[in-house]
Amino acid sequence: MNRDHTCGQLRKEDVGKKVKLAGWVSKRRNLGSIVFIDLRDRYGITQITFDENHSELVKDIRNEYVIEVDGIVSLKATPNPKLETGEIEVLVENCKVLSSAKTTPLIIADETDALEDVRLKYRYLDIRRNPIKEKLLLRDKVTTIVRNTLHGKDFVEVETPILSKSTPEGARDYLVPSRLYNGRFYALPQSPQIYKQLLMIGGMDRYFQIARCFRDEDLRADRQPEFTQIDIEMSFADENDIQGVVEEVMRNIFKDVKGIDNLEFKQLKFIDAMDKYGSDKPDLRFGNELVNLNDIFEKTEFKIFRDILDRKGLIKGLVFNHNFSRKEIDSLTEFVKIYKAKALAYLKLNEGVFSGSLNNALSDEEKDALKEKLSLKDGDTLFIVGDDKKIAETALGALRSKLGNELGLVDKNQYAFVWINDFPMYEYSEEEGRYVAAHHPFTSPKIEDLDKLISDRANCYSRAYDLVLNGYELLSGSVRIHNKELQAKVFEALEITPEKAKQRFGFFLEAFEYGAPPHCGVGIGLERLIMILSDTDNIKDVVAFPKTASAMCLMSDAPNVVDEDQLDFLGIELKKKD
Amino acid sequence: MNRDHTCGQLRKEDVGKKVKLAGWVSKRRNLGSIVFIDLRDRYGITQITFDENHSELVKDIRNEYVIEVDGIVSLKATPNPKLETGEIEVLVENCKVLSSAKTTPLIIADETDALEDVRLKYRYLDIRRNPIKEKLLLRDKVTTIVRNTLHGKDFVEVETPILSKSTPEGARDYLVPSRLYNGRFYALPQSPQIYKQLLMIGGMDRYFQIARCFRDEDLRADRQPEFTQIDIEMSFADENDIQGVVEEVMRNIFKDVKGIDNLEFKQLKFIDAMDKYGSDKPDLRFGNELVNLNDIFEKTEFKIFRDILDRKGLIKGLVFNHNFSRKEIDSLTEFVKIYKAKALAYLKLNEGVFSGSLNNALSDEEKDALKEKLSLKDGDTLFIVGDDKKIAETALGALRSKLGNELGLVDKNQYAFVWINDFPMYEYSEEEGRYVAAHHPFTSPKIEDLDKLISDRANCYSRAYDLVLNGYELLSGSVRIHNKELQAKVFEALEITPEKAKQRFGFFLEAFEYGAPPHCGVGIGLERLIMILSDTDNIKDVVAFPKTASAMCLMSDAPNVVDEDQLDFLGIELKKKD
Fold this sequence. Notes:
2 copies of one chain form a homodimer. Chain A has 15 helices and 23 strands. The first copy, chain A, is of the alpha+beta class. The first copy, chain A, has helices at residues 116-121, 123-126, 130-152, 193-201, 239-258, 270-277, 303-310, 326-338, 364-373, 389-406, 452-455, 484-493, 498-511, 526-533, 564-570; strands at 18-31, 34-41, 44-50, 66-75, 88-99, 156-157, 175-177, 185-187, 206-214, 226-235, 265-269, 291-292, 314-320, 345-350, 353-355, 381-387, 417-421, 426-429, 434-437, 464-469, 472-479, 519-525, 572-574. The longest helix of chain A has 23 residues, at 130-152. Chain A has 3 domains: 12-99, CATH 2.40.50.140; 132-268 and 416-543, BirA Bifunctional Protein, domain 2; 286-406, Gyrase A, domain 2 (2-Layer Sandwich). The N and C termini of chain A lie far apart (60 Å). At the A-B interface, helix 2, helix 3, strand 6, strand 7 and strand 8 of A face helix 2, helix 3, strand 6, strand 7 and strand 8 of B.
């Protein structure tokens, strides 16, 4: 060992000890012929001091050099309260340079103004910075808590293949050409979904895996081509059981990481979440629920609202106690148009007097009824969107979320968990002109909706659930179908022919013929969880070696070109440009 | 939950309780109108009993059906000592079929005569069998011990990329075509080598990862295209430190899994291992060391040995106390030829009289000298191979290993660990006509061999080490080069031009310019470790969803053909057959 203590370890009690430290030169200061160096390693910083008799040793040493020093722990005249080791210094007796360093392209400090591209190219330097290092340590801590909790409940971690077969989950697969079977390809898994269900059929009873998953999608800011999922599946269990397991995992994480031990988990049905919050990912750290106003306008003479109600639309309101300027209203109107709302109507109440775009359009009775139903008070602004149900809900939901954040209604130290249950079984794909699985095709419908599976797909709900935290979807899961006949019926509803089903996952369907237990599970996005815990919006901060939005590693330059003969072996060639 | 107890849980103390169990029908027996079922889940088997009033419930239930039963725990008249639950049975009050089952293509029992192909195709059924299930549980247990031990020593688990860049480690890479950059490819990592060294340069100090690795090799029986490595790296440390860490990991594993708490770790230099055991993977559970006999034949007139010594060859002996038949000797002679030995000479001692192929060729003085040097006693057979040093050592080493096993000299309950240190820096590749890195090009040479790096490559040794257990290589590791100049010199020795080095791992070399700490590490083959712990020679037994020797998954049929437009997106096409 080049050291007998770390740079975060020495305290007042160690004064007088002869120690050996090693680390990076974080800062050097000269005071006449005395030289002070802040020596840094993963564990902290210790000041080491070269007196005039030893300053020769230090003359060539610059920032980020790696050195090994022998010295005596000594009490500092003026303690540095910013350092945990701040009461002591080490008086150097000997010093050896282990490795020299050029000037680094980014400064190793908590704050950086380096461009993201530079930080990614020199990721190993970025990792030396506390904000990144701490997030990687946190990630390890969280997965450890997850493993301990699940092991304590008889879950077994099982590694499933990375070289696997295409799974039918919508996004594009990464493909791996086979050398031994030219013309065939492995796919990197989008999730271990099929394998974990097979483990349940195999009697493993309770499985988990901190699993690497892959999606060849056009990346958004919060996505990476490979990501990690806390993947859980359990047999002989239902929604209630698996949610209980996840809650225990979360309680343990938030207790250890945040010191919070009174987490609450609310429950909301999908339709209620859409009704009250206009979102299946509602942020429950603030109120401002959406309100259905159809009853108030039942007999309205205001033509626009009249038309909406006549075509079975929805008039929905949302109140904030804030006086918006005309300019702000214009900008919010543009905002709701992103969500396909045609307009944003509003009504203000100030000193008992109404104003706003709806003031002249509505009757006094209507305004009074609004005031009563919404308990409008001075300074309130009521926004109204009337449109098709989905548009009215979604647009106002987005507005609620935006204004809740911008008006400071969100307590950053609060963690509001809510289970969203009973998701729709299907969603209509405009692109494909048919209903597709909202979750995945192995999700069980609600028992009471069995008769709607094919006859009324728009109103058929499923046993799928999400866990939402502060407006973010933390996980998705569902009770799975464990019955071959029901699975066949769902495929029929999804217009997947028996032939196509057999070709795509025949082996999986066959497994259900040999005794499948009821089972359910979840996949928790690890990166998202770490992002929330460490309060960052940048997924790259919580990944050791992240890729850019175009799936490039700026450090290694992957993906890169390969030799012609490597492709020869694989039986592929680059497609000629037309 | 479909149960309130598992099938392995109920005991005498539970008699009288009303319970709910769920599981698979493992066996059913009829005794008149009473039906007994062995109900199985991951945790065990419980006998459930249907009396004449309830036998209607069970009439359609066959093996591997999944059922849920309510009943009363009752004392068995005649306990079944083979089951942990054998003192009780559950008298059924209600029974529900959760899932039916066809006749399984393999019987779910500890012993199976099913063909391996059938077991792989129906892997989920094979996993229901105890021998496979137990190995997967063991695997989880071992990785948990590894994580706990390493976390206790400040190691941090960090996930490194799977979509990465070709690493220069000899075997072929699996490639992943990029959709966003047509013509470029990711490579799946053969190990996280470069990333973990970058983490050391990044100051992570102590890293580990239970890491998935990939090699597109022609598979041997004990290889899989993807495998798992317990990957460890530490900074400011040397051979001694990292070996201490690994020993603690092994002690904890063998204590928890095998109840053994007195493991010993021997140390051998590579050259001594070759000299004494003719192998860098010696099985130290038995003696029978090879002996150098050159001194005895210094003045021999036996022409064959004379010639060998004249061309600086080696005459090496190996003794077993066994009387081999002529036929056995013939077969052993064929065996050593696999290792390029031209012949296998032998001398037997029986009732004080020598016999064997060398009896007439050697002088009485030579035979007496052999008898004295090797302490030959009645019933001994001395095998001699004279050849080039490497051939003589390797051939006799292989013979030693074969006979040690076949003659029952190996205690199956013993675990003999030995560190093999100071591996050669290079090995000569006949194929490439040049010296290549014996470990990998980032391995540090022995300090005392620095001057031989280029001038005497055949005699230059490295700071690489293996841990060998019972004749198997459990891990490889080395102290790494952390100095740019030394790295450049090693590349020169390996005839890797600066241009080629830059192209292949320029970003990695650049990292060493910004302050690299001394560091070293190991990669432990997890599958091999589990195979030894669970006493199987078949790597497929310790992998949840293994592939065949031709890298095929018989269950899912991966790799498989994909749609033309998937290839279009990736900018590749299948190479036309000539």
